[in-house]
Amino acid sequence: MYDGREFDVTGVRIVPGADETERNVAGDADYDFRALFVTHPTPMWVYDPETLRFLTVNDAAVRLYGYPAEAYAHMTVLDIRPKWERERMLVAVQARSDIERAERWQHLKADGEIMDVLTYGRAVRFDGVDAILAIVTDRTEVNRAYRQASDTRSLLDSIVTNLPIGVFVKDMADDGRYILYNASCGEIVGYDPDYIVGKTDFTIFTPEQAAQFRRQDGEALGGSGLLAVEEDVVRSDGAIRTIRTVKRAIPTADGSPQRYLVGISEDVTERRSYEARISHLAMHDARTGLPNRAFFADHMGALLTLGERCDPFALLYIDVDHFKHINDSMGHPAGDALLCEVAERLKGLVGAADMVARLGGDEFALIVMLKGADARAEAAVIADRVMLAFSEPFQLEGVTEHVDCSVGVALAPWNGDDVNLLLRNADLALYAAKGDGRSTFRFYERSMRLNAEKRHALTVELRRALVENEFELHYQPIISLSDDSISGFEALVRWNHPERGQLAPSEFIPVAEETGLIMALGDWVIREACRTAATWPASIKVAVNLSPCQFRQVGLLATVVAALDEAKLSPSRLELEITESVLLSESGQNLQLLHALRALGVRIAMDDFGTGYSSLSYLRSFPFDKIKMDRSFVSGIDTDPGSLAIVRAVTGLGSGFNLTTTAEGVETPEQLLRLRREGFGEIQGFLVARPMPAGDVPGFIARHHGINLDDLGWRRKAC
Ligand code: C2E
Ligand code: MG
Ligand code: MG
After folding, report:
1. Which residues surround ligand 2, an ion (CB under 5 A)?
2. Which of 508, 545, 577 to mutate to test the pocket of ligand 1 (most atoms within 8 A of CB)?
3. For the CA of 579, the nearest atom of ligand 1
């Protein structure tokens, strides 16, 4: 821009200020600005305001406008203007209004292009004429940029208005009046943005809501970052929506107080309810609606992290006894109904600070906060209440069922300060409760952990023993009382442990059953027993015990067939002893398998009769060949009238169902006499012989021949 200094044009000194006429001295060569004028990069010319003719034009102007330099001699300043600007130019020249000030014009270039310019006029003397120096700045680019900027502004306006997210701006210097409120914002709150703009929150929303917004605005203005809030807002139609808003004061460049507050709002109602549903689904059991294991563990974890600030609590691990039986025998809808009813009953036992969860299957758990001085006594009362909740029969699909439960209790913080440890310990206590015959509760004790560790060690050893062939079968004779002959031998497994000596089945069968190793062990027993029995006289049978777990094995039938084949043993010489539990669980499938085994010609005996459910319906559901009365009844035969009654009942069942009856655990001649009198079919027990190694069996058979059983017993007693 021209800075007002004097300069000379074409050898004539030009000085600003027409009113200071003749102050300049033409020809004074102090300053020769001619060359400067001509070569100056700013387009300039001098014209006569009377004739409007150009008096001189510099090179930059010639270049910019494109007219030949010599053409200017015949041109007026109107010639470089489009028609629509000429009138204004005439007025401006007459009024001298373009002097000493910048003026916007549109000029016409030689090639017809219209150019935006800014001219600055100064009155000068030129060749003795009162002339005007015009200094020109090409504004085309600048104006284009401005135009673009204004296009961009309106584009931005349109984007902001139509953004799918709510945007608003408040003028905090004007009582927080809205100066911008886009369409989405309007939709969120149910108001027309035109209604909102110009108003404050107090005109639009309830006083409480407006006051809350005002507080947030104050916070956003005071702080430097973003303020994010999520709150329920009442829409114009009364609906309550969850709105998430992020507010921020627009920073000022010069550090002056912030004035504008911009906010972005989003209606998150659906998203939040969806998230809530998802997290509910993820944290709850679909069947009962109770918290699931993950939720339960989280909750317990949160309690435990409180450390000393947390009240002690009891963790009760609850297992519905024989749930599988109900599920299998009555169908899944009945099983589901039972689970839901259990959930309801358990919920009724706890307070607001406690929790009931379904951990999976038929396992439930409670967390009960303990307030009293004696945590153990308090927990025992709760466990009792749980047992009591089960005492009322359950109505399942119109059928009344009695269902019990077993409960393991761990106390926090004493029995563990981390979730997994507590759950494991409560589980160990539950395991012990089940081992105690179910329908009871047990507190966790350290010995349970030691036992669990022992069980684990035993599992490892059992695996090894199977590979190393450390098992052996002993055989105990079974005597037929009709002629005192040997009817058969029962195969009883022993483990010749390298360090602990010979172990009885009670020490390892339960672990083998738990770990599934019973499958491999059971297979071996069947094959080994058949192989050994094949060496005995054909009249002597072999009895093999089957674990209920073996019925879960698909190959049991094939194993039996293969064992008989390999040993070339007649199926009629093999007797399989099962317990009632085989019929208790998955009875349909197991019955099928039993029938298939019996169809081979193998005999099936019910072992330990009288100790389990002893449901007579089992005898009807399957044609057993034999029942073996548990030895507990034999031992009480002389002293306990109940035992004698059972002995008689078993004899009656034997003749009624045409079954062989065998009495186990006969130890004394008196017991033998009694059983003979009661008409029992067979006896087995220490009175005759203890289980013996396979190698002793042939000798026993040979010795037994011709021996009077009764004599044997009395003789032994005399010794
Ligand atoms: P069980 O089938 O009832 O076997 C009879 C058990 O009573 C045997 O104990 C036997 O030694 C014992 N016994 C026999 N006569 C008398 C007696 O007069 N007095 C006393 N007090 N006991 C007597 P054992 O060998 O310790 O076996 C215990 C249980 O282990 C068996 O009971 C059976 O259920 C199971 N078992 C044994 N071998 C096997 C096997 O190979 N597979 C499976 N699954 N279980 C087996
Ligand atoms: Mg047996
Ligand atoms: Mg038995």
Report:
1. 545, 577, 607
2. 545
3. 34
Counting ligand 1 atoms within 8 A of each CB, the residue from 503, 508, 525, 664 with the most, and so the one to mutate, is 664
pLDDT tens figures, 648-684? 999 999 999 999 999 999 999 999 999 999 999 999 9
553 pLDDT tier (thresholds 50, 70, 90): confident
Region of 680 (left: φ > 0; alpha: ψ -120 to 50; beta: rest) is beta
Q: Report the C-alpha gap between 550 and 543 in whole angstroms.
A: 16
Is the CB of residue 691 below 6 angstroms from any atom belonging to ligand 1? yes
**62 membership: H or E segment, kind and range:** helix 59-65
Q: How far is 278 from 276, CA to CA, in rounded Å?
A: 5
For ligand 3, the distance from its centroid to the CA atom of residue 572, given in whole angstroms, is: 20
Bridge-partner residues for 442, per DSSP?
408
Query: How deeply is 124 buried, as exposed, middle or buried, from its count of CB atoms within 10 A (0-12, 13-18, 19+)?
Result: buried
- Exposure on the CB side of residue 410, measured as CA atoms within 13 A: 28
CA distance 233 to 206: 10
Does ligand 1 lie within 6 Å of residue 586's CB atom?
no
Point out the ligand nearest to the CA of residue 495. 1
Q: What pLDDT is stored for residue 504 in this prediction?
A: 96
Residue whose CA is at the smallest distance from ligand 1 atom 19:
665
Give kind and range of the element (H or E) at residue 457.
helix 446-468
Which residue in 422, 443, 419, 420 sits closest to 431, CA to CA?
A: 443
Domains and CATH numbers, the chain: 20-138 (3.30.450.20), 145-273 (3.30.450.20), 284-444 (3.30.70.270), 470-718 (3.20.20.450)
Measured from the Cα of 550, ligand 1's closest atom is: 44
Q: What's the whole-model pTM score?
A: 0.57
